[in-house]
Amino acid sequence: MDQSTEKTSRRTFLFRLGLAINAIAVAIFAIPILGYMLSPARRFTWLDWISLGAVTDYPENQTRLSEYVNPYRKPWDGETARIPCWVRRMSGESFQVFAINCTHLGCPVRWFAGSDLFMCPCHGGAFYADGRHASGPPPRPLYQYRHKVEAGQLWVRAGELPTLGQPEV
Amino acid sequence: MQRLKSIGAWIDERVQLGSAIAEVAEHPVPRSSASWWYVFGSATLVVFILQVVTGICLATVYTPAADRAWNSLIYLDYQQPLGWYLRALHGWGSNFMIALMLVHMVQVFLFGAYKYPRELTWVAGCVLLLSTLGMAFTGQVLRFDQNAYWGLGIGASIAGRFPLVGFKIVRLLLGGPIIAGETLSRFFALHVFVIPGLLIAFVGLHLFLVLRLGINEWPMPGRIVRRDTYLEEYRNIVRTDGEPFFPYAAQKDLVFAGLIILSLLVVAAIAGPIGPNGPPDPTIIQTVPRPDLFFLWLFSLFALLPPWTETFLMLVGPPLVIGILFALPFISGTGEKSWRRRPVSVVIVILTFTLIGTLTWLGTFSPWSPVMEAWSSAPTPFDYVKGRTPLELQGALLIQSKQCRNCHSLGGEGGLRGPALDDTAVRLTRDQMVRQIIQGGGNMPAYGKNLTPAEVNAIVAFLATMHPRGEPPAHDSATPSD
What we know:
The structure holds 2 protein chains of 2 kinds. By secondary structure, chain A is an alpha+beta fold. Chain A has 1 helix and 10 strands, in the order αββββββββββ. Chain A folds into 2 domains: 43 residues; 111 residues, Rieske [2Fe-2S] iron-sulphur domain (Rieske Iron-sulfur Protein, 3-layer Sandwich), CATH 2.102.10. Chain A has a 4-stranded antiparallel β-sheet, with no helix packed on it. Chain A has a 3-stranded antiparallel β-sheet with strand order 1-10-9, with no helix packed on it. In chain A, strands 2-3-4 form a 3-stranded antiparallel β-sheet, with no helix packed on it. In chain A, a hairpin with a 2-residue loop joins strand 9 and strand 10. By secondary structure, chain B is mostly helical. Chain B folds into 2 domains: 364 residues, Cytochrome Bc1 Complex, Chain C (Up-down Bundle), CATH 1.20.810.10; 90 residues, Cytochrome c-like domain (Cytochrome Bc1 Complex, Chain D, domain 2, Orthogonal Bundle), CATH 1.10.760.10. Chain B is 62% helix and 3% strand. The N and C termini of chain B lie far apart (98 Å). The chains are: A alpha+beta, B mainly alpha.
């Protein structure tokens, strides 16, 4: 092997080594970046039991607006940590707790006691008192939180935004 | 003058861009392209630069934290000297930019400027279109008010409809399980770093391609674009009928851009800042969320689409439309350029703008939405309570207290979701009224469970009097007397 071929092969080797080192380094760099950006999708669930107050706060045969604080709030969430929900007490310890989000596209539904209807201000959805669809574009009844009555308090299992992709929260 | 020249010469010796800039400025373009119809691209770019400047100014005061953003917006509007004006410039600038961009796109489309060899210029332009719409959406989120909060919920609900992994996409979009601090931060990073980077990169590419390939010559009917002959023909046009871009063609761009800046300054001063419309407190449910002007057509579309088609159209529609946009130069990259010989193109433009324009207009007053306060704020017109029996008056009262006015109007006041009640008796017999109230139908819920028979009786008694003078009430032909 003559001089020029030796020099060339050393040069190409160094060049290829440089490419390889950088390729490996970038690949390793990508791991924490992707882990960081994709972390919200990797955690399986954000749910916790939260108290909505004493059962006596909710008169029978009425639907009332209640609210809870996001159990996974961060210090800088401000008002967005407070989530409203509709509590319907039928009788005794029989409740329905509806999410505020319309099942069409998530706007806040408003309860009207006079006509026993939830109405949505965005695209005209309406629901009956028990959450069933009454009119308009919503594809399913109102989302409901799992709830229980314990020690005279109404508890809901909440913490996630209900959507059609995950209606049972 | 001599001083300036010698300073200029000193710099040019060390930067050595002078000759390149001169070459670009004076490169020959077809005389026919120095037209007023060609000014919209540069106007869009000028408004973009203004957006960057006003955006930087706003970023020195605006705080992108969920607990502070609202207060910083109020501070900008009421305390920061000229803060209201900067907000107005930035908000109206965004409307101007989208409008100019759309006009530019239509002009390019109708003039066939996307055809060979400018296919990639069009593709880069499509990326710019999507990025600008992305800036508009992320920007309206940064104006963190009730519209922004619930608008995010709508975006999440659309993402949630994606099969199988919908809920994961929701979490990526929101940065977590619900709309919270990390959501606003995410959108801030997108609006200030990611998408502007894309925009600047692709504007650079877009401009480079325009310079390299030359400005499209005025399309003449009958002059067909063919891949093997076009480049030679274009060079001929430039050689025989070309003018230096600067100042011959650039002068019209300059005038129009200057006028646009001036009109933006005037509009922003008169119309003032856009929003914010209420603190982003989710527990304030007395709210009527609406998107910004250029997304109103989508808002109307979601209200009017048949519900069973929605998920499919939401998932398939955008990729299809975007795919067609990107593929356009590969579908019709040669052939006639002039719109005079391309009737399909003209029809497409007219149909698209009629559709989007109509949907936008509908979105400004959203007839499908119940008017939430009408039941307690829109009184029964006086003429409709004159000379009524007590039963009929009770019916009129029930129409108020049962929120019927939220969807129905009387005397022009009330909701537009259902038909006006002023002529109900002309359209429906008593039996039909009873059935409609109890069973609902069309867009109306069933009220059978919420009304006693006596209440239904009273309402129908009142509605039976709702016929204009001189028009007899409807009656069933099988029953001679109603």
